[in-house]
Amino acid sequence: MFELDGGVTVVVKDGGGDPGSIPAEAAGLRWLAEAHAGGGPPVPDVLGADDDLLVTALVPPGRPSPTAATELGRRLAALHAAGAEAFGCPPPGGPAEAWIGHTGMRNRPHPGPWGDWFAADRVLPYLRTARDRGDLDPGGAAVIERVCDRIGGLAGPDEPPARLHGDLWSGNVLWSSPVGSPGRDTEAWLIDPAAHGGHRESDLAMLALFGLPHLDTLLAAYDEAAPLADGWRGRVALHQLFPLLVHTVLFGGGYGAQAVAAARRYR
């Protein structure tokens, strides 16, 4: 954090050696900000960005509450409903070669159904990397590959592409108390997106994977605002294959075992 002339505090982030990560994040924040204008969750204002540095407004810290979780559920429904051009598409102005954490993530529009795109661009690339590095044994990798072969029958009803945060774990949800408004409840802000067009159940599945305070309250509010398709709870582990394999690539084999266990649910 840096304090500017006049006492305004901003957050400055560098790309951490990941080329293209700052332009991708800046484009994602702006895309989510467009949805905020239509009722989506708030995100920090992008005050400046180039290839190396991102400057955003500071989000004042607060504490989670059921009321804020309810509001976040409704706002996530609005974010997803803002839509995307296609599954896999980047935010406007965002690069095709983006990032999630410190590993690459390809954003390219896919004309086919969600399951085909999800298998091709969100599961198999990380599966292959993890297998080649020895973080997944061939048998475990084969279990996940069989799920990809059958994904059309597992994906549930067709839905239009949603506008996703894309890396929606609890660390990227900031509970904020508005400065100068002690009587107002906290509200949830989103930061550090890996934004793209995808399936709305994927954002919710990532929240379930890594946990969030008052998650059941959030999900109930979301389902009331934008009812989820029948059987969505049975598809949570399917959507979790992507973040689990990303974490396998980033952090090692423990996550690989979790990915295989998730895939075994669909044998």
From TrEMBL:
One of its GO terms (molecular function) is kinase activity. It comes from the Bacteria. Keywords: Kinase, Transferase. SUPFAM superfamilies: Protein kinase-like (PK-like) (SSF56112). Pfam families: Fructosamin_kin. Coiled coil: none annotated. Gene3D superfamilies: 1.20.1270.240, Phosphorylase Kinase, domain 1 (3.30.200.20), Transferase(Phosphotransferase) domain 1 (1.10.510.10). The keyword Signal does not apply. Belongs to the fructosamine kinase family. This is Fructosamine kinase family protein.
